[in-house]
Design goal:
By secondary structure, the chain is α/β, with parallel strands linked by helices. Helix content is about 15%, strand content about 35%. It has two helices and eight strands. The strands form two sheets. It has a four-stranded mixed β-sheet with strand order 1-4-3-2, with helices on one face. β6 and β7 form a beta hairpin. It is globular and about 50 Å long.
Length: about 140
């Protein structure tokens, strides 16, 4: 058995690509429409790690999904948790669980999918503004 991908249903493919590709930094590997099924698939992965993919499924006739269809979270290791969180904030993404410990943070996609960010290797030394930032909502 081999892990292939995690599928996430998204209501707005453009907003989701702005989040996963532009803000989070994943690379779009392939995207295609399936007119007969009325959906679009987009496959993304972290740079240099195309084996671990996330599949964004946009069903053309759906405008929203309930939280009951969520599954937990997607996790990515990052080289610098502070720089990653700053880049996400610069893209308008709210940090719902800041990396106060220099190790772990959570953000949410436009479809409320929790994304866990973990510092590769040892935690970074605690630093502002992250240490003083409160949690916001759920992750």
């Amino acid at each position: 058995m081999k892990y292939l991908h995690t599928m996430v249903r998204v209501a707005d493919l453009d907003a989701s690509l702005r989040f996963y590709r532009d803000a989070l930094g994943l690379q779009l590997l392939r995207q295609f429409d399936v007119p007969s099924g009325r959906f679009t698939l987009a496959f993304l992965a972290a740079p240099g790690d195309s084996q671990a993919q996330i599949e964004l499924t946009h069903n053309w006739d759906e405008s929203s999904y309930t939280q009951g269809r969520n599954f937990g979270h997607v996790a990515y290791a990052v080289d610098d948790i502070y720089a990653t969180c700053q880049r996400l904030q610069d893209h308008g993404v709210q940090i719902v669980r800041p990396p106060r410990d220099g190790y772990m943070a959570f953000v949410r996609s436009p479809d409320h999918i929790s994304i866990e960010l973990l510092q590769s290797g040892a935690p970074l030394p605690p630093a502002e503004p992250w240490v003083s930032m409160p949690n916001i909502g759920q992750w």
